[in-house]
Amino acid sequence: MYLTPYATLTWAYQLHYYLCFRTHRRKIVFTSADVETKLEHLIAEIATNHDYHLLEHQTYPNQLRCLLSLQPSHAIAKVVQTLKCNSARELSVPIPLWASGYAARSSGRMRISAVRAYLEKQATHHGYANRALPPIFRYRAQSPVILPANHASFDLSHHLVFSTKHRKGVFTSTVGRALTEYWLRVAAKRELAIDQISIVPDHLHMIVRIVPKVSVEEVALSLMNNGQYFMGKHYPGLLLANGMDQLWNASAYAGTCGDLTTGLIMKWLRSDE
Fold first, then answer.
1. How many whole angstroms separate alpha carbon 136 and alpha carbon 172?
2. Above 70 in pLDDT, residue 43?
3. How far is Cα 228 from Cα 243, in angstroms, rounded to an integer?
4. What is the pTM (predicted TM-score) of this model?
5. What percent of the chain has pLDDT over 70?
6. Which SS3 state, helix, strand or coil, does residue 162 take?
7. Which of 148, 149, 55 is nearest to 101 (CA)?
8. With left for phi above 0 and alpha for psi between -120 and 50, is residue 272 left, alpha or beta?
9. Do 7 and 220 touch, CB atoms closer than 8 A?
């Protein structure tokens, strides 16, 4: 059964990232008030010009730390490159200005531990837990998959939510397990890690870690299209019985999460410690 792949999605999202990059060989560069002020104005201007929302930032003699709110189409590696290249070009300081590496961490309204607990409770939350054969499937990785990236220290975790078209209840525990096993094979080939999944009949939640060079939008489209291909190939009768010509609604939710909340990181940056 052929199902048309998705090319775009309508998004609900909250994507917050903490970034830190240092000067070349950790040279002390930002010592005068004028240079520090110019860098801060430049970063704010660059962010505005590229549709990044600068939530907070702090300049130190040999590094810059900032907290950004981004869109699903933004890839962290490209964001860092844009900030570094544009600021280095405009500042009258020694060249090269920035070191090649950087640190990137996701944050969010809730800690990742709270998001994990929320996924564990989906069966109870939607009233499936007390059924004799609950139509749910849960998966949680026993150990984290290591994701590589050159010149970057990163931990980019995202909470994704997909729903079936017209919220049709097509997933059972058996189908959910089969789909998850297929997605894990896809993830192994696409430089992403699926840490947790909770599937109920008409929607699913997952926690996915990604590498800096890809955007969460690319990852979501890959998972949705691969998942739809799998269902069309192995469970076409299930889709036809529910009158579905597509598996998913053409929309998704994406939210970042991490060990620290956005609020705590903002407070830390403002403290100047």
1. 6
2. yes
3. 15
4. 0.95
5. 99
6. strand
7. 149
8. left
9. no
